[in-house]
Amino acid sequence: MPKSVPPVSNAEQHIRAWLAEFVVGLNLCPFARPLLGAKNLRIAICEDTAPAALRRAFLLELDLLQGSTEQEVATTLLAFPHALTDFEEYLAFLDQAQELLQQSGLEGLVQLASFHPRYRFEGESENAASHYSNRSPYPLIHLLREDMLSRALDDFADPDKIPDRNIETLGDIGAQELERRWKAIFSL
Fold first, then answer.
1. 83 in a domain, yes or no?
2. Between the CA atoms of 165, 115, 120 and 137, what dihedral angle is there, to the nearest 10 degrees?
3. pTM for the whole thing?
């Protein structure tokens, strides 16, 4: 499990390395490869710590995404390098973000995906390799366009098997090796 959070000055660099090494490199998300170096992949860094500022950052990104074309902003990764380090606190904020999404009338248009340095699936052992499928360098919310996701799923055979394939891939690598690779991201 990641033990410390790296300095914020390298946040975007760490996120891009995580995308390249874990998300795309291990094929955890088969739809991510085309966006890896694309200009319409937005990585937003919120350096605030106050809850109201975190909500405001989320709403600003939500507004930017819905007010942009897919060619301008395909998807947004919103990272919080100084906040939400406690996983339970992060999950509570994620619930708030989901409520804000519903209140804004964008449910069904935008979907949220969750990633955290200490992500842990309920019911799995603390050291399970599977946790790395949702571990990111910083607490992060991925804002996805539903129509874009639907198109990607329509073109992919057996999308329901992705989570099981990820668990198998990560299990084959093992938690110790994943931890070594994880630490390498922060040496950049």
1. yes
2. 100
3. 0.91
